[in-house]
Amino acid sequence: MDDLAKKTRLDAVLSTIYGTKLVDTYRASADSALRLSYGRGRPRPLFLGAAPKVILAFMARPQLVRIYESCAAEAASCGLGASWSEFRSRLTEIRQQGFYWSRGELEAKVSGAAVPVINAEGDIAAALALVGLSESLEDAGERRLKSWLERAQDDIQARLAQGVRPPSPAPQRTVSKKATPARRSAMVP
What we know:
39% of the residues lie in helices and 23% in strands.
């Protein structure tokens, strides 16, 4: 992920879900000036931003039903539909795209684009996102963002399929031109 951040000049963020809490488990930062309201290890909104929407879109139906039933009003207030069918329909659209681009949903002037990370069992394990100033993502364009994310997604999923268990998370840091790859954070078991 450090290489991804260095190559794209965007922050690379890995997020996962614990119950009804979405947490960023790793962040390789390309821009030390970019300050986000939510950081590694702190719960963030479940229905706003690229990472949570990708995770929800690829979640198994029984788990998604439980989340919807306990958080329906919040989902509706975030524009994901006022009913189960509207909610499910919106997430199905995201799933079919295999990618979601959030523009200013979580923080003004900040955007994120995310893809799912699927484990060896075929379940959603995490979301991999590129995050930065909206202008930077717009300059990159959807095709390039998707390409960068899909290459990194393939690498992470191949490692998961081989049973490679990422080491404990390294402290959050800024990637410099001389940075070496940091240890990867643990994903959902």
